Amino acid sequence: MDLSTLYDQLLAKVTALGASVAVTHYTLSLGAQDAVTGIPAKTYAAGASINMIILGKGAQQMLTGTGIYVKTDAAGFTKTAVSQGEKIKDANNLYYIVESVVPNPIGDIVIFYTVNLTYLGDFFG
Predict the structure, then answer these.
(1) Contact indicator for 87, 26 with CB cutoff of 8 Å
(2) Looking at the whole model, is its pTM more than 0.90?
(3) d(Cα 117, Cα 25) in Å, to the nearest integer?
(4) How far apart are CA 54 and CA 120, in angstroms?
(5) What is the DSSP letter of 1?
(6) Are 89 and 24 in contact (CB under 8 A)?
(7) How confident is the model at residue 7 (pLDDT cuts 50, 70, 90)?
(8) Which one, of 106, 81, 86, lies nearest residue 96 by Cα?
(9) Which tens digit of pLDDT belongs to each residue from 22-70?
(10) Residue 108: how many CB atoms within 10 A of its CB?
(11) Cα 41 vs. chain centroid, distance in angstroms?
């Protein structure tokens, strides 16, 4: 088995079920810091459409069997690098914020990223 195709095999299973994996990735840019709080201003720009398999807590056993534990509202799997604090909009116009990103390497090659997502609702917020 070619380990570099593990993500592609999971992607094929999900799309065979008729699920859409195309999401909109909103990249985060930090602006000037607030004079009082020191918190930088956040702006989001719609990046390219990327493929991401999103599994909610209730669906964690359906496709992956055992071994995947969803710590946040959902877990995403993608070959595209995303960063903490960025936002994702799925095909149902539901928004998530990226809480953490874990690379899944085989040797020195990252096969895919596991992205922990928190549900924001159907607004950009």
Answers:
(1) yes
(2) no
(3) 13
(4) 14
(5) -
(6) yes
(7) confident
(8) 86
(9) 999 999 999 999 999 999 999 999 888 999 999 887 655 555 554 555 6
(10) 5
(11) 23
From 27, 81, 30, 17, select the one nearest 52 (Cα to Cα).
81
Reduced 3-state DSSP string for 17-61: CCCCCEEEEEEEEEEEECCCCCCEEEEEEEEEEEECEEEEHHHCC
Total number of residues shown for the chain: 125
User: Which residue, 77, 75, 98, is CA-closest to 27?
Assistant: 98
C-alpha span between 65 and 77 (Å, rounded): 15
Spatial separation of the C-alpha atoms in residues 64 and 4, rounded to whole Å: 17
User: Position 106: which residue type?
Assistant: I
Residue pair 70/114 in contact (Cβ under 8 Å)? The answer is no
